[in-house]
Amino acid sequence: MFTIACGETKKISMQKSKTWKCSVCGYIHHGNEPPEECPQCSSSSKEYSEERDKQKLKFNGEKFDILLINGSSHRAHNTGIMVNFAEEVLKKNNVNYRRFNLNELNIQHCWCCYSMRDSACTYPCRNQLDDAPALHEMIVDSRAVIVASPINWNNMSARLKDFLDRLTCLQNLYLLKKEGLTTGKVVGILVNGHEDGGMKTALDIFLYFQQMGYVLAPFGFVYRTHGAQYNAKTDDDFFKNDDILKKEVDGIVSNVIETMKQDLEANLKDKIFPVSE
Ligand SMILES: Cc1cc2nc3c(=O)[nH]c(=O)nc-3n(C[C@H](O)[C@H](O)[C@H](O)COP(=O)(O)O)c2cc1C
């Protein structure tokens, strides 16, 4: 708040306008509050954050249990609701976790150095310009990953695919006969959509992780679809109040936690023969 003295007596009070950015499409809005609906991409105000200088993502190197990834274009819509449910279960179980919404991060597409020459794809990744290297380190220093995605064209979101493609540097360790850094870690998968492709999407996501030596938790993925007739508002109400979804996410997250407690990563060390592409 600042005040302008006007003449001798008049004082005008003005609120300093804030700058808000949509995390989905990058639209910039000036005002005290974000717009209720993004004028450019129709996302809700929940996708807006106050614009600040963005620092590259860093990891402090402290080991933790579970990396929770929301792979949706929206951080706070249907996939986000599933991730919120998952977060509640992690909190209830005192699990040391970190959550990231990919739409808030800068993840460039894979440079595909591997396609030039297999030894050109190195870990750490040669692309150190964005937020992926910090996530790579977190993958290595966590014991399990829970990934959530909407179904887009019977597949995962493009954002998630860009991120998973960037894991090639970890998978390539096995191809280059170097020590793998992910064997025996655990994965769980959450998928939502309107009508179909849930199972395929979950398996497409799993393929990445199995190539890195991850183990799918028993009953380790869930998908939920509810029909294409809904719009953003009714979608939101449906997913938030869907007891089946809540129960299923609860089950998947618990299964990941229990599998993680078996410490397969330590128990299988040096006993696994990597069969990767
Ligand atoms: C480009 C695009 C493709 C989609 N393709 C499918 C699909 O193949 N199958 C499906 O069930 N839903 C599909 N949907 C619907 C989304 O999966 C659904 O709206 C989802 O809840 C969006 O998640 P979000 O709210 O986190 O963005 C598609 C949506 C978009 C935008």
Nutshell version of this structure?
With 277 residues, the protein is of the alpha/beta class. It contains eight helices and ten strands.
Encode the helix/strand succession as letters: EEEEEEHEHEHHEHEHHH
Q: Which spans of ≥5 residues are poorly predicted at pLDDT below 50?
A: 1-13
Mean pLDDT equals 92
Radius of gyration: 21 Å
Strand line-up of the largest beta sheet: 7-6-8-9-10
Number of DSSP E strands: 10
**CATH architecture tag of the largest domain:** 3-Layer(aba) Sandwich
First-to-last CA distance: 60 Å
Strand content: 15-25%
How would you describe this protein?
The protein is 31% helix and 22% strand. With 277 residues, it is α/β, with parallel strands linked by helices. The chain folds into 2 domains: 37 residues, Rubrerythrin, domain 2 (Single Sheet); 204 residues, 3-Layer(aba) Sandwich (Rossmann fold). It has a 5-stranded parallel beta sheet, with helices on both faces. 39% of the residues are buried. Flavin mononucleotide binds next to α1 and β9.
SSE inventory with pairings:
Blueprint: E1 2-6, E2 10-14, E3 18-22, E4 28-31, E5 48-50, E6 64-70, H1 78-92, E7 97-101, H2 132-141, E8 142-150, H3 158-165, H4 168-175, E9 186-193, H5 198-210, E10 215-225, H6 232-240, H7 243-261, H8 264-267
Parallel strand pairs: 6-7, 6-8, 8-9, 9-10
Antiparallel strand pairs: 1-2, 3-4, 3-5
Helix pairs in contact: 1-7
Labels describing this entry:
8 helices; alpha/beta; Rossmann fold; 22% strand; 3-stranded antiparallel β-sheet; Rubrerythrin, domain 2; 2 domains; single chain; 277 residues; binds flavin mononucleotide
